[in-house]
Amino acid sequence: EAETAEQDAEVIRAQQAQRQMPSPARIKAIIDEFVLAPEVADSVARALYSGKTTMFYGPSGNGKTSILELFANNFEGVALMPYALYVYGQVIRVFDPSVHEAIDDVDGGDAVKDDAKLDRRWVMVRRPAVVLGSELRLESLDLAYDPQARFYQAPPHVKAQGGVLIVDDLGRQRTDARDLMTRWLTSVERGWDSLSLITGEKLRMPFDVQLLFATNQPMEQLADEALLRRILYKVEIPSPGPAEFAEILRQLCQQRGVQTPEGAIERVVERLYGQAGEKPQAAFARDFLEVIIEGASFDGCEPVLDDESFERAFRLMMSQG
């Protein structure tokens, strides 16, 4: 038997009253996995802790996606999820094993646990985290009807109820970013979203998600000032400075077993940051070492970060035009 939309809304409201945000210590532990300037790390931690809609922006290759994916994979807490909803004589499937991790023994609120034990139409899951990328289209935000099975599939933001919805690569979708942002920001502000059945009926669903956007495009190209004002937190993830890049390179050399003669890392940083033009992204350190390791394998020797290997890798990676 499926749950009704009204009963689903009641449970979601009860969960909202009981929910605890991830602790600052937990969020800081996640951020500490990355090498960020102190002020950047602080801004990221505060935005994630807030539970509010946030836009993470900045050049590609500097960790926006990795930070959000790690946050999603370590999202704390539990939520009640209906297996399905029954609305206007139609069934809407909500529980999705590819998104929801069912759990048996939890330390959540008593009311939530009692509901789960008494009603088999609900399943206790870890707080869901749904990550969407450039494949997202506007029609993906509505109910999808399967005429063979004769039921609807809930859209991603419904499956993310009580959790976090991450939209990566905003601006790369076929759908205009303004339309996506307007649809979801409006739902966040009013606390509900309107979905349509193929029979024409409209369904009002609670909208209870932390909405996180990530983009490498200039924000003024994505939306006008009025729309951007509706996003409370805006956090830039810039390319690393010399100190951060040196630490990233040092950690990667240790992880990958690349020998670093005395002063080698400092010379690399001086070479990269001492020339005019765009400064390296964080991902450049990983790619750069990959070329050095593969070159050492080609030469039949152990990988070493020295002047010769640097110049060879730099020549192979950088365009000469």
UniProtKB/TrEMBL annotation:
Gene source species: marine sediment metagenome
Residue ranges annotated for the AAA+ ATPase domain, each copy included: 50-241
Listed name of the protein: AAA+ ATPase domain-containing protein
Alphabetized SMART domains for the sequence: AAA
Family annotation (InterPro entries): AAA+_ATPase (IPR003593), P-loop_NTPase (IPR027417)
